[in-house]
Amino acid sequence: MAHAHAHSGDHGHHIIPLKLLLSVFGGLVFLTVFTVLTAEFVDLGPFNIVLAIIIAIIKAGLVVTFFMGLKWDNRVNALIFAVGCIFVIVFLSFTIFDTAFRGDIGNVGKQTIEEEQRALEGTEEAAPAAAH
Amino acid sequence: MATTSTVASSVGSGHAEPAHPAHLQHHFVTSEQQFDAAKMGMWLFLVTEILLFSGMFVAYTVYRVWHPEVFQAASKLLDWRLGGFNTLVLLASSLTVAMAIHFAQKDNRKMLITNLVITVLLAGVFMVVKYFEYTSKFEHGIFPGAHYASHELEMAYAPQFFSIYFIMTGIHGVHVLVGMFLMSWLVIRSMRGHFSSAWYTPVELTGLYWHIVDIIWIFLFPLMYLI
Amino acid sequence: MSHTASSAHSAEATATHQGSENYLNHIKTVWSWMSTIDHKRIGVMYMITLSIMFFIGGILALLVRLELMTQGQTIMGPDAYNQVFSMHGIVMVFLFLVPSIPAIFGNFVLPMHLGAIDVAFPRLNLASYYVYLGGGVLVLLGLFAGSVDSGWTFYAPYSTTTNSSVLFLTMAVFVAGFSSIFTGINFVVTIHKMRAPGLTWNRLSLFSWSIYATSIVQVLATPVIGITMILLFAERFLQIGIFDPLLGGDPVLYQHFFWFYSHPAVYIMILPAFGVISELIAPFSRRAISGYKFVALSSVAIAFLGFLVWGHHMFVSGQSAVSSIVFSLITYLIGIPTGVKVCNWVATMYKGSIWLKTPMLYALSFLFLFTIGGLTGIMLGVLAIDVHLHDTYFVVSHFHYVMMGGTVIAALGGLHYWWPKITGKMYSEGVARVAALLIFFGFNLTFFPQLILGSQGMPRRYYDYVPEFANLHLASTIGSWVLALGLFTVLGCLIHSLMRGKRAPANPWGAATLEWTNATSPPVPHNFSAQPIVTHGPYDFEVLRDSFGGDGAGQGAPEPHIRN
């Protein structure tokens, strides 16, 4: 049935069968239960978050592909959606690229310039005082 | 390039189509062109929605990477049972809205209306649960940002978690309310018999919108409640 | 081919019929304008509104320059000065430059370039106008409610702690953003779904390509400024502590959010200008744009690359050095597609029959000014140099060379180019040329001294300066008067044209795009009397000569000897 609608021309739109909708819903419910169980009762350490995000992505994928009918839709709409997702990743990764490495440049400390100056003067005072 | 042929063919076939359906606006040649244009416009709009929420996801990620232990402790204050229940409610509403489109395409007006009404009701349930979650948080002094006054969790940066929680779920909730309004409008229109298998564009577009609201929640739930 | 010719003939028949029905006169009530869904009328409404915004922003700019004419206080105090330059930036960026060319010429010309009756969503188009108007009113309320002094960037934490009228402006930016999103969605769908039979992607005008790229950026970037403004709003009202360092927030994160929109927004402002310049250079050189595909796809490349470089506004903000380096490197890449464009425009003129009408004068000044703007931009993208030049007049001059020397000059060129089509009237060529030259010299006199000032260390946004800078500041202020004189000459010239102008022929420039070849001046309400069937590219002037005879200018065009 899908091939007839691969390029939706003048003929009618794809009708998603009820059975498919219900089984996708079943899958979504299963994944929800699964993610709750793994997150609350299984300790995977840092992999808990990875697993939860992977499950969320799979669930979102199911909704987009079947409920939203992107599988049978015009390819352009899939492209639009993909571009949107890519730019979310760009936004996220480039920002993290800063925040995760914040302060990597040598002369940026937590102290203010005044504090640093004071510290510097303090060491100078400790050194030969005759310099002043 | 597939679109080129679509447009060309739909424009070309326009001359062969003598009947001019009532829903067809003057600047389109065929119903197909109008439907495709509307749907593409909706997908573009959905992308703007995704990017709107992406800002908050970025804020979440930045603060989570900086203070993972705070976020883990803070998320324990949220009740995963309520969140999980709401997830199932929204998933079910996504199913019913997809079924509504299915029945619109099959000219089954009764089932179309039934499914839309169920969707509105499920969205209402979601909002009621959300309301109780919010009030219980407020009772414990959990407010966003500087107003945070909870004694259960007195860690630096815990207010950041709840700021992000309230802003994200708040904006998501506004989207649910908008969706409820749109669905109710669809119910009225379908009761008046405005939709048929020949034209059900508003049902289709509102359905797409509703699924995006669902998808946002699919990500919010584990990030906020579980991990 | 026969179809094109026959529709042109019918266009000719209506054109020669004096007082014929067109989009301007077919219904004349005020309500018919306010409720119109005709893309041409919406374009005209945008043109008038944006001109008013440009006027307000321009007056504010003149006040800034006047204050800086001499050292110390000249006409206003430091607080007033802060507010004036902030409002100048906000009005010019959000209310003029971002909508400018897409809203005016995109609306008027794009559907005609596509051979369509209207944009895909005409009602959304009208809605976007009113949403824009709402944003504009909010900005003006902020102007009168008083004292916005945060600059146009609203950097936290200053914007979250300074006086509360900043809230008006953040609201306004949020609202105006919706207008931008609506327009973007509308144009992308229009280009995909509304093209005339025969109009393949390779026959799309370069203006359409650039609007396409712009619209993609609008759709992808604008929502982020929306959420940024919501968060800023929440930061003020609820002290959510995301951006405010006193509450544990990170002000640099605000800058990421802001520039994720505002850097692509620079391309929202300049990409349509590239499109206009392509439309001007081709007919006034009588040659097809050389490297058409490169010029077309470079717009898309710029649109996408533009998203990867926002951090170059933040080199001195305290962001991590490693991301500064990456942002700096990617910034260089933008120079490639931009260079492709400039080289192709120059190559188009090479051995072309250059016709120095007013629009072409603007195109040439664009090439000159934009190249300066672009090259100084690459200099600023160099990490080490930027640390020295950051927040100096060098930056101010750079973006004025791009935004004013690029976008505004292109918009003026487009205005002179499409004026006969929009109004059906010709303007005085002599006066228009004088105005173009005044603008060119005034602009350079205003902003070239600022490049020198900046490299000598004059910081931007400062109210006062040391005596060494006095002469250059004076020169810049005098330049701003010449520039203003030129702009007022344009205004006078065009108003005179409306009153007394000669009737414009359908295709005064002998251009080959559909709005000239297949429509009257001004066009009929539904653009074309018959659905155009496209059989040639947008710059195939040779084909045009075959179908129309003579110089290919179509009916009513001046005889070749008029060319000078």
Could you please describe the fold and organization of this structure?
The complex is a heterotrimer of chains A (132), B (227) and C (564). Chain A has 132 residues and is mainly α. Chain A contains four helices and no strands. Chain A has helices at residues 18-41, 47-67, 75-99, 113-126. In chain A, helix 1 runs antiparallel to helix 2 (47-67). The radius of gyration of chain A is 28 Å and the shape is elongated. The N and C termini of chain A lie far apart (90 Å). Chain B is built from seven helices and no strands. The longest helix of chain B has 36 residues, at 31-66. The relative contact order of chain B is 0.15. Mean pLDDT of chain B is 89; it is low at 1-18. With 564 residues, chain C is mostly helical. Chain C has 19 helices and no strands. Chains A and B meet through helix 1, helix 2 and helix 3 of A and helix 1, helix 2, helix 4 and helix 7 of B.
Shape designation of chain B: elongated
Broad structural category of chain B: mainly alpha
Average pLDDT of chain A: 81
Mean pLDDT across every amino acid position of chain B: 89
Work out the oligomeric state of the chains in this entry: heterotrimer
Specify the biggest β-sheet of chain B: none
Largest interface in this structure: A-B, 52 and 55 residues
- Rounded to the nearest angstrom, the radius of gyration of chain A is 28 Å
Helix/strand layout:
The complex is a heterotrimer of chains A (132), B (227) and C (564).
Chain A: H1 18-41, H2 47-67, H3 75-99, H4 113-126
Chain B: H1 2-14, H2 31-66, H3 68-75, H4 80-105, H5 109-139, H6 158-191, H7 201-226
Helix pairs in contact in B: 2-3, 2-6, 2-7, 4-5, 4-7, 5-6, 6-7
Chain C: H1 2-16, H2 30-34, H3 39-67, H4 78-97, H5 100-113, H6 122-145, H7 158-161, H8 166-193, H9 206-238, H10 251-285, H11 292-305, H12 321-349, H13 358-381, H14 383-389, H15 393-423, H16 429-455, H17 470-500, H18 514-517, H19 541-548
Helix pairs in contact in C: 3-4, 3-5, 3-6, 3-17, 4-6, 5-8, 5-9, 5-10, 5-15, 6-8, 8-9, 9-10, 9-11, 10-12, 10-13, 10-15, 11-12, 12-13, 13-15, 13-16, 15-16, 16-17
Question: Short description, anyone?
Answer:
Helix content of chain A is 64%, strand content 0%. Chain A is mostly helical and 132 residues long.
Features:
heterotrimer, B: 227 residues, mainly alpha, 7 helices, disordered N terminus, C: mainly alpha, 68% helix, disordered C terminus
